[in-house]
């Protein structure tokens, strides 16, 4: 039986993990490869991209690890050119880069505010800007943007720049979906809930007593009694990136164990 992403080329931005275990980007890059995609795994940290590529190679997949800072236009132009030189096309653009910077508007410096917008929104703007002409020339493409349920809900932690940038990611996704709907290009966003990933534990660590406290309290806040994991994001991404979702565009899909249905 054909795999779900057979013969597709996927560009995954933020494809590494900042620590041991599975982050959303790393799991998604591996899941794309398991479904037959050839993957360009991009990360700020080359060693992290290489680790993901090593996992894919070990399973017999094809992966090209690249170092880039997605907030820099020259880096993004370079990685798109490199992807085209490697495989000649880009079918899937997966924007996973994102980071929560703590604080409300009073506590947060203007510099951190600007950084929140750049990391969570600016990189996605640049990658989309460079990849859309490629997809348009192909007459096909699927964009998967990783947002957050923090874009539509207060989750008990102040990270005003992150929540604002992710809300913009949602509207950015829907605007692209409609602007390009007649050109064979789909754009959807995934809104992860509370996921147990190395980045989440690192970026939110200071708001909990220790890691055990973080895990226990985040588990307790979830309707299912447990956080999700990176594979929940990965398999939702595979579906949205695949032709199974050919009539799905502009969707903001919570992957949150029901958290956004909750009133208290
Ligand atoms: N984990 C959660 O609970 C959760 C919840 C909601 C949303 N999300 C979203 O999921 C995505 C990431 O998930 P994760 O927490 O599993 O992290 P992750 O493990 O996927 O790590 C992200 C990777 O992005 C890389 N990166 C950071 N800045 C970069 C840059 N400028 N250029 C290139 N690469 C860069 C990091 O080095 C890291 O390897 C983010 O968009 C995040 O906002 C996560």
Q: Element order, helices and strands?
A: EHEHEHEHEHEHHHE
Radius of gyration, in Å, reads 17 Å
Which percent bin holds the helix content? 40-55%
Q: Any idea of the CATH class?
A: Alpha Beta
The CATH fourth-level homologous superfamily: NAD(P)-binding Rossmann-like Domain
**Physical arrangement of strands within the biggest beta sheet:** 3-2-1-4-5-6-7
Number of strands: 7
What is CATH's topology name?
Answer: Rossmann fold
Oligomer class: single chain
Q: Report how far the terminal alpha carbons are from each other.
A: 45 Å
> Which overall shape is indicated by the principal axes computed on the Cα atoms?
globular
How much β-strand is present in the residues?
5-15%
Tally of helical segments = 8
3D architecture notes:
Helix 2 (46-58) links the parallel strand 2 and strand 3. The protein starts with 8 loop residues before the first strand and ends in a 9-residue tail after the last strand. It has one domain: NAD(P)-binding Rossmann-like Domain (Rossmann fold, 3-Layer(aba) Sandwich). The radius of gyration is 17 Å and the shape is globular. The mean pLDDT is 97. It is built from eight helices and seven strands, in the order E-H-E-H-E-H-E-H-E-H-E-H-H-H-E. It has helices at residues 24-34, 46-58, 73-87, 110-138, 160-179, 198-204, 211-221, 230-241; strands at residues 9-13, 38-43, 63-67, 92-95, 141-146, 185-192, 252-255. The chain has a seven-stranded parallel sheet, with helices on both faces. The protein is α/β, with parallel strands linked by helices. It binds nicotinamide-adenine-dinucleotide.
